[in-house]
Design a protein that fits this description.
It is built from 3 helices and 2 strands, in the order αββαα. It is an alpha+beta fold. The chain has a domain of 58 residues. The protein has a two-stranded antiparallel ribbon with strand order 1-2. The longest helix is centred in the N-terminal third of the chain and has 12 residues. The radius of gyration is 14 Å and the shape is globular. The N and C termini lie far apart (39 Å).
Length: 83
């Protein structure tokens, strides 16, 4: 996964994305999530996130991630900017 981690910043940036958090250290306060690790990405819009996820640039990396890691991906709706 080192190659994946090295490739992602440039691919994310080309779709306006960036890492907001990467790593262990999550403390589960409620629920049954194992909390082993979390990667949080930020994009300007949901449409930008979907363009990245469905892109030809990300496709081979998505396949690699799916083969070697057990993950769950979520995409939130666009949120209004805080006042």
């Amino acid at each position: 996964m080192a190659r994946y981690g090295a490739a992602m910043p440039a691919i994310l940036a080309s779709y306006g994305g960036k890492y907001r958090f990467v790593g262990p250290g999550i403390e589960v306060l409620e629920g049954d999530w194992d909390g082993r690790g979390l990667v949080m990405l930020e994009f300007p819009t949901r449409a930008d996130a979907m363009r990245w996820y469905e892109s030809d640039a990300y496709a081979p990396w998505r396949e690699l991630r799916q083969q070697v890691a057990r993950t769950t991906l979520l995409c939130t709706p666009d949120a209004p900017a805080p006042a």
